[in-house]
Amino acid sequence: PPTPLLFPSILLASVLLASTAFAEAHWPSFRGPSASGISEGAAMPETWDVDSGENVVWKTAIPGLGVSSPIVWGDQLFVTTAVSETGDADLKVGLYGDIASANDNGVQSWRLYALDRHTGEVQWFREAKKGEPRSARHTKASHANATPATDGERVAAHFGSEGLFVWDLSGKLLWKKDFGELVSAFFRVPQAGWGYSSSPLFHDGKLLVLHDVIGDSALLALDAATGEILWQTQRQDVPTWGTPTVVSAGGRTQVVVNGFQQMAGYDLETGKKLWHMGGGGDIPVPTPVFAHGLIYLASAHGPAAPLFALRPDASGEIEPKASPESAVAWHQAKVGVYMQTPLVYGDEVYACRNNGGLQVFDAKTGELHYKTRLASGKGFTASPVGSDGKVYFTAETGEVYVIEAGPGPELKTLAVNDLGELAMATPAIAEGTLYFRGRRHLFAVSQKPEKDVADEVSKAEEAASP
C-alpha cells in the first residue's frame, strides 16, 4: 500500500491531539456534522507549504481517481477511489461547458481506503468491485464521486451503478446492495453520462440514499445494520447530484433534498413528503444546509440560479417567493451557485460560483454584505469549509484561499496556499487539522510547526520529571 510522508513526525500528531482535546474529532459524512462544513474548538492554520513541510503533518498517495471527500471518525480517515486497469485516468478541470462524457470505460477497481488520520499510514483498503463501469463519468468527475459516510460502527460507500457497500471499521464487509444502473446524466441530453455523486448519510440507525436519476427517482431509507429497505419514496425529478440533509426542528425530523422540480422535505420515519417547491436551477448539485433555524437551498444552470432560506415547518406545495406569511424567509434570485454548497458560518452565507465569484449575505435576512472575486481564470468545485474564524476555498488547480470570516464590508484574504496538484474534493476538518484530497494525495494540514511541538514536548517532559 502507499506509504505516507510525515511532516515532521508522528510526535506532532500526538501533541496536536493533546492540545485540541475539546475540538470536534468526527467529520462523518459529506461536509461534516449536519452537512455544516464547520468544525470548531481548535486553532486552525492560516498558511502552509507542501514543499517545505511547513504546517503539513503528512502526505499520503492514494492510487486511482476520485473526487469524493475524506471523512473522519476518531483515529481513522476514510476515502474512496476508482483505479483504472488501463492506466492514469484523465481529469479535465477549468471553466468550460463541454457536456460530453469521459473516455474512461475500461476495467476499474472501486475501493475504500482506511488511514490512521494522525500519521497518514494506510491501515487497509477493500476492493468493493472490479469490472467495466455500467455508467459513464463526466470529464470533471470520476467513477468515485460520492463521499463515504460512517456512524462510528460502519462505513458506507456508494459507487452508484456499481452498488452500495457497508463495512465495519476494521474492513469486514457487512452487506452490499445492487440497485442496477443509476443513470446520472444531463436530462436534456441523456446520453451525456456524468456519473452518480449523491453521498450516503447515516442517521438514527438508518442509511439514507438519494437516487435522482434518469427514470425512477427515489429517496430511500435502509436499515444501517442489514441493508433492508425501510421505506422508498418516489420523486418526480430529473437527475440531481446533492446529498440529503437531516433537519430536526419544530417537533419533527425530516430529510431535506435539493431538486429542480422538487426541492422537498420527507418525514424521517415514514418517508412521507411534507413539503415541496420548484423554481430551482435545472442541474442541482449543492447539498441543503440547516442553520439559524432556516433551511438553505441553492442551485443553478438554465434560467434559474436561486438561493432560498426556508422555514423548517413548511408544509404542502410552496411558492418560491419570500414573504412574512410564506415558508420562504428570504430569496436571492441570481447568485449562480452551481457546484459548491454554500457555507453558513457565523451570521453570514458564503456563496461562491464556479468561476470564483463570491457573494456574502446576511444569513437571517438575505441582505448582501459584499461581492468580490477570489481569483480570475480558475474553476472552483470544492465547497468551502469554516473554522476558527477562517473560511477555506479550494480552487480546482490546488490553491486554497483563506479568508477572514465576517460581514466585510470587503474581502480580507489571509493567505493563498498551493497544494501543488489538482483538487476537486471538499476538505474535512477534525481537531484542528484540515484534510485535503488532491488528485494524487491526501494532505493533513495543522497549525503547529515542528519547533513549537518540540518546545511543548520539552516543557511537558520537564514538568513530569521528579
| Poorly predicted spans | 9-21
Helix-and-strand structural type: mainly beta
Number of helices: 2
Number of strands: 35
Main sheet: strands, sense, barrel:
5 strands, antiparallel
- Computed over alpha carbons, the radius of gyration is 21 Å
Overall 3D shape: globular
Share of residues in helices: under 10%
Oligomeric state of this protein: single chain
User: What is the strand arrangement across the widest sheet?
Assistant: 1-3-35-34-33
The chain-level mean pLDDT equals 93
> What percent strand?
35-45%
Euclidean distance between termini CA atoms? 44 Å
Written account of the structure:
It is a single chain. By secondary structure, this protein is mainly beta. It has helices at residues 10-19, 450-464, and strands at 4-6, 26-27, 56-61, 71-73, 76-84, 108-116, 122-131, 149-150, 154-158, 164-168, 173-177, 201-203, 206-211, 217-223, 229-235, 245-249, 252-257, 263-267, 273-277, 289-291, 294-298, 307-310, 316-318, 328-332, 343-345, 348-352, 357-362, 368-373, 385-387, 390-394, 399-404, 413-418, 428-430, 433-437, 441-446. The strands form eight sheets. The chain has a five-stranded antiparallel β-sheet with strand order 1-3-35-34-33, with helices on one face. Strands 2-4-5-6-7 form a five-stranded antiparallel β-sheet, with no helix packed on it. A five-stranded mixed β-sheet has the order 16-17-18-19-23, with no helix packed on it. The model is unreliable at 9-21 (pLDDT under 50).
